[in-house]
Amino acid sequence: MFDQKEEPILEARHVSRVFPASGGRFLRANNDINLKMYRGQTLGIVGESGCGKSTLMRMLVQLDQPTEGEIFFDGKNIASMTKKEQRENRRHIQMVFQDPSSAFNPKMKIKDIVCEPLLNFGLISGKEKDTEAKRLLRLVELPEEFADRYPHNMSGGQRQRVGIARAIALEPEVILCDEATSALDVSVQKNIMELLAKLQREKNIAIGFICHDIALVSQISHQIAVMYLGNVVEILPGTQMKASAKHPYSVALLGSIFDTNMDFTQKIESIDSEIPSPLDVPPGCPFQNRCDRCMEICRKERPMLRKISERHEVACHLFEEKEGGERG
Ligand code: SF4
């Protein structure tokens, strides 16, 4: 059961990330993001390429810092921690990347790769490495003998298991997966998802799962945040994604899914027109030039996230007049 009475383990409050660009302009990759992650729960983050998902993840994992806003881990503002506390805090938030082969040093054996974080934090000695590597490999259901292999002697799915073994080595409270299954075959993808779900159940880890595949994310996430052009435009329970999505962008994303169980009498929708340049976002709603329900107010005022029912928030002027209701 999802319990929002519990305190979030990781929280973004009014987080924005702005990058300077040529000609004195600025690229706003994330705009006033508010998100919460809970122990034992998965937060899926979906949206098209360039919507700011990865920038957000980099800030959550302390690889980058917000231009505005704050990130809290277990109730503590990360920015107000000392350097020593921030380093210690990195243990608790780990990341799994899309392409583990590019994240690993090809000259390192698997045992060196999975044990590197433990050695860096002084949690094991060199003598304990072999035993610890085998324990971690067992946890991700890989044979112990793989400890002496190199990454290029493994399949993509096996390498991703190594990436997960390395991520869980420090017993983190949060794992952030950036398109972690996107490069894998569908059957391998399923196995990796099952492994992450098993580890989450056993260790009560909060998982953040960035993915452009909305069908996959809605199957595995307790909660989903839909991002568009640096903004979170809708937050809702994963199980209700298909039936309850309200934001015109979320609805359009769902309409563009192709799968073999779909109703082939229904048209596969595409989203008209291009995403505006993030260097030139118009005032008002960021989705206005692609939305067939755009109104005058949408071109003037940016819609804020608004709770329309329990655990469901939407940033759209269609849902601002009354709780849970639409404009006429
Ligand atoms: S605020 Fe307006 S333009 Fe934006 S999604 Fe809602 S109806 Fe469409």
Topology:
Layout (H helix, E strand, L loop, with lengths): L9 E11 L5 E12 L4 E5 L6 H8 L7 E6 L2 E2 L5 H8 L2 E4 L3 H4 L6 H11 L8 H11 L16 H13 L5 E5 L7 H18 L2 E5 L3 H7 L2 E6 L2 E7 L3 H4 L3 H8 L50 E4 L2 E3 L14
Parallel strand pairs: 3-8, 3-9, 6-7, 7-8
Antiparallel strand pairs: 1-2, 1-4, 4-5, 9-10, 10-12, 11-12
Helix pairs in contact: 4-5, 4-6, 6-7
The structure holds iron/sulfur cluster.
Report on this model:
- By secondary structure, the chain is an alpha/beta fold.
- It has two domains: 10-92 and 172-326, Rossmann fold; 101-167, no CATH class.
- It is built from ten helices and twelve strands.
- It has helices spanning 53-60, 83-90, 100-103, 110-120, 129-139, 156-168, 186-203, 214-220, 241-244, 248-255, and strands spanning 10-20, 26-37, 42-46, 68-73, 76-77, 93-96, 174-178, 206-210, 223-228, 231-237, 306-309, 312-314.
- Helix 7 (186-203) links the parallel strand 7 (174-178) and strand 8.
- Helix 4 packs parallel to helix 6 (156-168) and helix 6 runs parallel beside helix 7.
- The radius of gyration is 21 Å and the shape is globular.
- The mean pLDDT is 87.
- Bound molecules: iron/sulfur cluster.
- Iron/sulfur cluster is lined by residues 248, 285, 287-288, 291, 293-295, 298, 303, 316-318.
